[in-house]
Amino acid sequence: MLTFAPTMLFNILTILPMLVCGLITMWLLMIQWRYRRRERSWLIAWGVAATMLYACHAEYFSRPDVANPYADTIYAVCNLAVYPLYLLYIITLVRGRCPRRGIIALLLGPAVIGGVVQGILYGMMDSAGAREFNLIFLCNDSMEPLHGVSRLLALWHVACRIIFAIEVVGVVFAGQYLIRHYDEDIAMNYADTEGRLLTSVRTILWILLGISVMSVVANIIGRHWFSDSTWLLMIPSLAFSLLLSLIGWEGIMYGLAPTSSETLATSESLALNADEAQLADGTVPTPVVAEHIRQTLREKKLFLRHDLRLSDLTEVMHTNRTYLWQALKESDTTFSDLINTLRIEYAAELIRKQPETSISNIYVLSGYSSRNSFYRNFHDIMHCTPREYAARYYLTITSPQPSPETSPQPSPRERE
Fold first, then answer.
1. Which of 415, 351, 354 lies closest to 385 in space, CA to CA?
2. What 8-state DSSP symbol labels residue 64?
3. In the chain, N or C terminus with fewer CB closer than 10 Å?
4. For the chain, how are helix, strand and coil distributed in percent, rounded to 5?
5. What is the reported pTM?
6. Which tens digit of pLDDT belongs to each residue from 211-224?
7. Are 290 and 328 in contact (CB under 8 A)?
8. How far apart are CA 120 and CA 108, in angstroms?
């Protein structure tokens, strides 16, 4: 029993990432069957590739001394495909349409080439050569005794590891760049950004980078080091299982968010296109325009509208989006920040003038549809909670002010 328990734990750790990823992929498939979304197709493809990748991991750790060219080739393809597939998911998510074929070919080309070359090299080897390669390189990460096709295959494995490391860095920073610009476009076009921003995806990408560094190190030192220690294997197994759960959960929850389907407009439609950026009179918006925007919002109380958009303001002001966009841009603010500032100022005024009104009613009267969003923005702008603000205000107006007669008079020395 004492010898069985560590073996059972080792087997569980080897299949845990595969099981987690497989369950997430099945869940995504069921959601996709009912609610079809283009970006989710790439996430499902990522899930399939990741499941096959960790299935090959499990195959290796269950029988490290047995050569399996097919599993090793599938592993090479999936290892070079998972990160590009996740980037394709992000591209489709922020643009609202599938990437061009050239981009798809560029991102998935290394995985296809890696698998084809590795399969050809394995095909040029006999079974004895495959066993020798498995024992010398895959199990001990050594190339010295290898020669001929076996040595070429070992060098190709090293090249795939280098390509994988480059992919990790490229995908993380490209994904961060796309999401940052997407969130900026959302903040410039929508007053209420709750449920529209991709903050969780940005967080996952940074976690992905950290865990991927560990993966790159594992690729460098070789998988054989983990097959000898259950506790050493536990670190990547639990880390990757957690990351896979986060990615899958984010994809599931974002796809079910009530505003997500509407928000997934293309970045090009949110941002200014080249034709729209050319003003008819050639003028550039000035701070006067920005002040006119604030004045219009205050006078007509447009900021109290739920889900207000920049396009709504253009209709009221009888102008084009370019004028408003550039004015806000030059003022170093976004449409969302401006509306939130006006709403919080209005909420603070209600707290002062209507002390009998509850905070629950004030956030609705101020134009917010989310209590959490109201509290977060109130704290960011006023540097306190609504209740703290009310307490401070009423303490200020109720505290007695010293009269001139009772106030301490300066001494002759102080007068000098």
1. 351
2. T
3. N
4. 75, 0, 25
5. 0.80
6. 777 776 766 666 66
7. yes
8. 19
